[in-house]
């Protein structure tokens, strides 16, 4: 019996599809044999060679139906679209532009954008993020921000594109193990019992086990899920690793995770100010986190994004208009309200790098 075949555009190839005919280059060289099961790497190679269509076995008739995901495909079409839209517009969003210092911007945006173009075609990653969004929109927003901040720190570390891809991929899904944690436990606003704490802490291993067995997930990316709660002094979990025993990707994600978690509202507390979160990271250098990574984070990533409304120590209110590359916590602020409450008719700029007697004391809403 002849197996059902289907010729499809390369842009629609899915990981796990099986070639029904060989993939041959224009010069006659055979790139892949018939019967090859396509991995992410093979699909990249086919695209790179400029091949437009390939013939695959019609999976709907040839292969048995896979177990359905926890959230049905038709039920999660809206969440998937939410994830797709978020990732598609992330590289040039105000969120990204706001975090960047001048040094990062020159090298980061182009590479990050090309990585996102690849990730929006990654079915597993989109599905996991969609499930996170359905379970807890806050957790989804947190994962997006952690990925952005991690990618920026990787750029400061001068990672090449391959390493930056692995880091960003791992950062997007570092908390995917939280999908196995009961929602009421995540939102609980009281101290956890020892039993509840054990359930919560298992999300690191659960996430790693989910990621490491997949061929379309870089193995080092999976370590972000496993090790992002390990700490430099060995006090973390699940394996109490120390210093260099913790992969650098996971150390970067841990810093981004803690920083963004602190400046965000949680179910049990109000957010800390960026200055308070920065002070915490600085004090935790070579204790919870590698000091050099903390220094790079605080030096190159803006804790007061452009367009943030802030209050200065002299009582003035202004809007952050630009951020210095070396002193991200001392941006240029456009003053819009004087200390006595009067509105400034002609807003003017104050460079906090030159006015050292003035500091930002609070970030305001609106």
TrEMBL record:
CDD domains: HDc. Residues 117-313 form the HD-GYP domain. It holds the Pfam family HD_5. Gene3D superfamilies: Hypothetical protein af1432. This is HD domain-containing protein. It comes from Brevibacillus thermoruber.
């Amino acid at each position: 019996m002849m197996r059902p075949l289907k010729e499809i555009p390369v842009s629609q190839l899915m990981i796990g599809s099986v070639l029904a005919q060989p993939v041959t280059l224009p010069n006659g060289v055979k790139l892949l044999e018939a019967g090859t099961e396509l991995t992410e790497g093979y699909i990249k190679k086919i695209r790179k060679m400029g091949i437009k269509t390939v013939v695959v076995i019609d999976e709907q008739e040839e292969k048995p139906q896979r177990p359905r995901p926890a959230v049905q495909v038709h039920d999660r079409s809206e969440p998937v679209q939410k994830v797709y839209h978020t990732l598609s517009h992330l590289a040039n969003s105000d969120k990204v532009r706001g975090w960047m210092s001048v040094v990062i911007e020159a090298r980061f945006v182009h590479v990050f954008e090309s990585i996102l173009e690849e990730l929006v075609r990654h079915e597993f990653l989109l599905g996991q993020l969609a499930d996170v969004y359905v379970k807890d929109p806050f957790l989804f927003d947190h994962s997006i921000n952690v990925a952005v901040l991690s990618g920026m720190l990787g750029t400061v570390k001068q990672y090449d594109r391959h390493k930056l891809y692995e880091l960003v991929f791992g950062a997007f899904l570092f908390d995917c193990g939280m999908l196995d944690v009961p929602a009421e436990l995540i939102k609980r606003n009281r101290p956890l019992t020892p039993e509840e704490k054990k359930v919560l802490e298992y999300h690191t291993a659960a996430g790693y086990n989910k990621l490491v067995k997949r061929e379309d997930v870089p193995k080092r990316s999976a370590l972000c899920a496993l090790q992002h709660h390990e700490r430099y002094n060995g006090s973390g979990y699940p394996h109490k690793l120390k210093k260099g025993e913790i992969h650098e990707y996971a150390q970067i994600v841990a810093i981004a995770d803690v920083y963004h978690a602190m400046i965000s509202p949680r179910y049990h507390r109000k957010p800390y100010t960026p200055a308070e979160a920065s002070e915490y990271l600085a004090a935790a250098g070579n204790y919870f986190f590698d000091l050099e990574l903390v220094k790079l984070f605080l030096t190159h990533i803006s804790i007061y994004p452009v367009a943030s409304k802030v209050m200065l120590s002299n009582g003035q209110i202004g809007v952050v208009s630009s951020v210095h590359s070396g002193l991200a916590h001392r941006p240029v602020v456009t003053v819009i309200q004087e200390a006595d409450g009067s509105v400034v008719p002609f807003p003017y700029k104050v460079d906090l790098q030159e006015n050292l007697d003035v500091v930002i004391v609070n970030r305001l809403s609106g």
